[in-house]
Design goal:
The complex is a heterodimer.
Chain A (H helix, E strand, L loop, with lengths): L2 E5 L3 E2 L5 E8 L8 E6 L5 E7 L6 E3 L7 E6 L4 E6 L8 E10 L2 E9 L3 E5 L2
Parallel strand pairs in A: 2-11
Antiparallel strand pairs in A: 1-3, 3-8, 4-5, 4-9, 5-6, 7-8, 9-10, 9-11
Chain B lengths: L8 E4 L5 E6 L11 E6 L6 E4 L13 E6 L2 E6 L8 E8 L5 E3 L3 E5 L1
Parallel strand pairs in B: 1-9
Antiparallel strand pairs in B: 2-6, 3-4, 3-7, 5-6, 7-8, 7-9
Chain lengths: ~120, ~110
């Protein structure tokens, strides 16, 4: 069975840094683009970042570009989100997700982790 | 990239049908037949219920159906059941090779 397990969420001060991890199992991890989606308290879903399985090409939402960095380690079936210069508006539950369509995001995200909470506050 | 537009809330009685709309632009929903829908119960992760506009993943009830016309996609839930009460989100692939979500619709089963 596909499983995605996030970790790393915490309380951090504005301007601080945090690294989230997502450990994957149950599928050929290196064949799939992997994605982070966040949800602020009481708000909707927001696509944050994705990383290709084939060539580790990355993409980011404008709201996090230049502050967040996505990466992956195919040998560990794990991908990461390094979050720097954190702001109060980054407070959210961060979900990792797997696409249905291998290295293509368009066919939707068919499996999601349980989420990890990041709180940015002084 | 602006969020897709969904109504904030819809409601229906058990057994009835409801439709949730999702409006995008020429850079996303209108340009591709890559629309997905997700169901989210409080405190839970989103669940994948529709992909490629009309297709249901294995195990999803056939009471859920999707469609698209121009820059608007729709999710229809027929034979409403109490357990359908949840938040629903649409998503589209974009011309920038990214994803964009709708703002979400809260479904209340009366």
């Amino acid at each position: 069975d596909v499983q995605l397990l996030e970790s790393g969420g915490d309380l951090v001060q504005p301007g601080g840094s945090l690294r989230l991890s997502c450990a994957a199992s149950g599928f050929t991890f290196s064949n799939f683009a992997m994605t982070w989606v966040r949800q602020a308290p009481g708000r909707g879903l927001e696509w944050v970042s994705s990383i290709s399985g084939r060539d580790a090409a990355t993409s980011y939402a404008d709201s996090v570009k230049g502050r967040f960095a996505i990466s992956r380690d195919n040998s560990k079936n794990t991908f990461y989100l390094q979050m720097d210069s954190l702001r109060a508006e980054d407070t959210a539950t961060y979900y990792c997700a797997k696409p249905k369509g291998n290295d293509f995001l368009g066919r939707g995200l068919d499996f999601w982790g349980q989420g990890t909470l990041v709180t940015v506050s002084s | 990239q602006s969020a897709l537009t969904q109504p904030a809330s819809v409601s229906g009685s058990p057994g009835q049908s409801i439709t949730i709309s999702c409006t995008g632009t020429s850079s996303d929903l209108a340009a591709y037949n890559y629309v997905s829908w997700y169901q989210q119960h409080p405190g839970k992760a989103p669940k994948f219920i529709i992909y490629d506009v009309t297709n249901r993943p294995s195990g999803v009830s056939d009471r859920f159906s999707g469609s698209k016309s121009g820059n608007t996609a729709s999710l229809t839930i027929s034979g409403l059941q109490p357990e359908d009460e949840a938040d629903y989100y649409c998503s589209s692939y974009t011309a920038y090779s990214t994803l964009v979500f709708g703002g979400g619709t809260k479904l209340t089963v009366l």
